[in-house]
Amino acid sequence: MAIVYSPMTVEDIDAVLYIERLSFTTPWSRNAFLQELTANSLAMYFVGRLGDIIVCYGGCWLIHDEAHITNVAVDPQFRGKGYGAGICRWLMSEASLRGMTRATLEVRVSNVAARELYRKMGFLPAGVRPNYYTDTKEDALIMWKEGLDTLAIKK
To answer: Could you name the CATH architecture of 4-151?
Structure first.
């Protein structure tokens, strides 16, 4: 079964929160996702579905010519199957279609799997935000990717 990407809707929030809670030590709240979907004109969020099951999601803010990736997560039951890379590619393709030329994100320095995924996607380390994560005071690695058009998905 092929994964299908589509814009995240308010109806998707319960499934997204399930993945969010399994993926992050400080998960976003229902209200945070609701605000992103209904009130943030800079926000763009997508889900990946296998049939009726949401297996991943990702989002970003479109600011000037930059896509600032806010979150990417895959249900732990479906990790290691390329869905993280798939949702990242989808986000960057959609951002490119909207005129974005580069992307940035922050990732926990301890999150080796995510850092490796982003490196494989062409993101390069550009700095550190000390004590960025409020729950552990862990540093965030800032990463950038130029040339979003190189990952554009033909639709």
So the answer is: 3-Layer(aba) Sandwich (3.40)
Lookup result for tokens 């998905």: 153
Could you list the active site residues?
Answer: 106, 118
Nearest-angstrom CA–CA distance, 136 and 149: 36
Question: What are the DSSP calls for 104-146, one per residue?
Answer: EEEEETT-HHHHHHHHHTT-EEEEEETT--TTT---EEEEEEE
Please tell me the pTM assigned to this model: 0.91
Span 72-119, pLDDT tens digits = 999 999 999 999 999 999 999 999 999 999 999 999 999 999 999 999
* Domain edges within the chain: 4-151
What is the bridge-based pairing of β-strands 102-108 and 124-129? unpaired
